[in-house]
Predict the structure.
Amino acid sequence: MDYKELVEALTEALSQARRIAVLGVGSSLRGDDAAGSLLARRLSKVKASDVLILDCATTPESFTDKVREFGADYVVIVDAVEAGLKPGEVVVLTPDGLAGATFNTHHPSLKLLAAYLEHVLGAKVLMVGVQVEKVELTVEEELSNEVEEAVEVVEEALKEVLRRLGKL
């Protein structure tokens, strides 16, 4: 999914959102798995109204109280994914669409987290996945070039969507 397609898909999906939580998920010690976490750290510098940005690292379930307290009606979870695509390719999925993609470094699973957010908190959930190239143990955060470029695209796309929604 390129920048334009991503902006259109997210704008349409979030068009009714009042309060949006963006959860970046990933491990900075596992190569490309750090994509979501890095994105959240970058977006946290943006001053947006009715938007909560959280770097959840590898424990997004630990942040559900913050999402609940914030009163998010939409949650966007950004994470690295294994979906059999080209490295750096971006996909937008609903929790029902997770069957073909693997977000395998997080326990409990992101599908279970999404179900909790939807059923207990009443929030609609979207997953933005960045196809990994490498997920290996490292001593420093190091993304492949393709995933680094994809993180930049997702960051700019989310900023544009927030502008369109009047949140920036």
Observations:
- The first helix runs from residue 3 to 13.
- Residues 3-161 form a domain with the Rossmann fold fold (CATH 3.40.50.1450).
